[in-house]
Amino acid sequence: MKLWSFHGGIALPGHKQESTGNPLRTAPLPRHLILPLSQHLGVPAEPLVSVGDKVLKGEMIARPGGFVSAPLHASSSGTVIAIEERPVPHPSGLSAPCIIIETDGEERWTTLQQQSDYRQLEPATIREQIRQAGIVGLGGAGFPSYIKLNPGKTVRTLILNGAECEPYITCDDILMRERAEEVLQGLLIIRHAVQALHCIVAIEENKPEAFHSMQHALQHFSEGANAIEIVSIPARYPAGGEKQLIKVLTGQEVPSGGLPIQLGVVCHNVATAAAVFRAVRYGEPLLSRIVTVTGSAIAEPCNLEALTGTPVMELLATCGTDFNVLEEVIMGGPMMGIVLADHEVPLVKTGNCLLTVRRGEMEQHPTVMPCIRCGKCADACPVSLLPQQLYWHARAKEFDKIQEQNLFDCIECGCCAYVCPSNIPLVQYYRFAKSEIREQQEQKRKADLARRRHEQREQRLAREKAERAARHARKKPGITDEKKKAAIQAALERAKASKSKQGAPTDDV
Amino acid sequence: MFKKALSSPHIHCPDFSTRGLMFQVILALLPAAAAYAWLFGWGVVINMLLAIFVALGSEAVMLSLRGRPLQPSIGDGSAILTAMLLAFALPPLAPWWLTTIGVAFAIVVAKQLYGGLGFNPFNPAMIGYVVLLVSFPRELTLWSLPASLSTQTLDLSATLSYVFSGTLPPGLTIDALTSATPLDVMKTQLRLGHATGEIMAAHPVFGLVGGKGWIWVNLLLLAGGVWLIYRRVISWHIPAALLGSLFTVSLLFYALDPQHAPSPLFHLFSGAAILGAFFIATDPVTAATSNIGRIWYGAGIGLLIFVIRSWGGFPDGVAFSVLLMNMAAPTIDHYTRPRVFGHGGKDG
């Protein structure tokens, strides 16, 4: 298959073999599960349970809060002991509402609806099952998957993303090695749901075992195998970025601000496909995921299959973390992950990796030098931006100029900051500029709204005043002083007349 | 290497640092500097050391006046590089005050007053050189003869004494030690109506393609420049465009009238074309920043060098060409922004 390339990108040391040396393990059942209501992009879920409720494993405990939202299920059986704010894995380090379940250790399942042949199901039914199963993109973004399964357009190519281009992360690698068949079954279900003509599974070339395992599984497929192609792509970060991957596989660029479906492409992560398979075949909602626990503070780096809601601390302990030397834990990879402010945060649906950094392994006060416009950032940028110019404008808070330089096409992959010889935290500047611009736009929107309201109110008041005046004028047409006097005179005369006729009945009274 | 950061990325490429880039450029200059000193005498060494001393001193004074910490700025290598480039452009027997004024102006005015490294719109070394060129034109034309041509040479103490006090050993005059540069000779002789072949045969400063001795310095500068490209310290765009445009336009005139236009190779290997292409025009702070922009920027410098050499008032035009294109760099940047992913184009 012909492959294309994207501009820029960087070759990174993989650090994959540390965690692929050990087989996939199952993390022990934690005593408490902390389940944030927002583990996806979009509106948070709304709780369906209250404190004290007994819940079964797989039972829905929070329903979607809107269209772009996902439900939440109890990862194990037990009792809801609290619904409160807890620290969650988020760059802000802030807390967010969570449902806390005390597990009973029995792992009692709710009733699940199994389906042996997905082809019996309508695509709409499959989508609804996937929505009900709370499946979100497991590659990291956490976009509710069912939305991407309703393209409303012919899907020429369905891409399964197994690139896993960030260093250290191997959860998709291990998944493809150990559960290739589930991934491919999931792919066929998604293919059925979106009625895709052609399917590609893309795997970076640094994962030959996963590639062969997938090839092997495909050979034993009786149906649908001819529509699936498993492709090895060059290992160049960020080849696993959705738009970059589509470019590599199809040569086409997703338009700025657009979606892959505009090119007739739908892209899902391999782990999402496996979750789709389990949801449709066995009726299992998304309760667990594979997470890579690695880095230099870990005695036995490995991949764990862990329930969502398991505290990160327990996962680290399971893998033999030396807490005495532990400096930091990054959730996600070193290029795009977030530093966990609190190790009590739970594993969430999008948590693909826990990367530990040992004390002394981290430069504490990196020296930042001035930008010399060497352009290494521009050479590395996979979107062909000019990061040095963006930096300049962000520093000067020239937000109109920075948008002219297409700031909002930046995918925050970190390539520019990685190569910067002056060690400038470039992405931080872009995040700052983006949030400032969003804030300004929001302010402007509010101000516009307030102005419109004010104007409408003024108009309404003016209109009402005019109407009142008009009504007033209509009620007493042509009243003049002459007529008033005449009316008063007439009244007086009537009074006199009635006085003179006092005692005698009159005609008119 | 992990680094403490507020947000991702959490790792940083260990291969490049701004300081490392500067010192690699300095390293690439050293063989040519050594050859220059070997061929043209101790004056080169004295110039270089004096320039570096003045540069670091001016940098330190300005940083403290601006209330900035000395480190890491003073150690970033940029002042040393500016000093070396300017020393390359000065005559080997330049008096001490000439070097001092040029370097001090470069660092104090052209660099620090604009805000220091990264904020200067003009190449500091070239500003320093041009200040000297317009203020002290005579001193800048007194170039030492290459050792192979000179009957008289100065030893270290005699050179020191000349540079710092202007006195020469008895019986020696400065005219015996210096001559006009090959570009200078070519220009004046061409104006007098001589043909190029005739000029080159008549004057001993000319070698096979360029000036005698100069050719070795230029070849070593070329080697250093290619090494910098290989090391990815600089990109190929500016040198290739600069030398390419100088070569092309001089070839055009040479083809039309070889008697009155010097050959393209003469242009490339005389004066500061190679130094300018690899070491001066490639100063990223003052150059165009996108790769397409760099090509326009380099080509513009090459063209201007030819124009100034052929019709201008100075024998060489690298410094003016670089400064003129420095001025044009923001405009070039504005019009040569690369097509951003997903914006138009044939794939969009």
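The radius of gyration of chain A is 33 Å.
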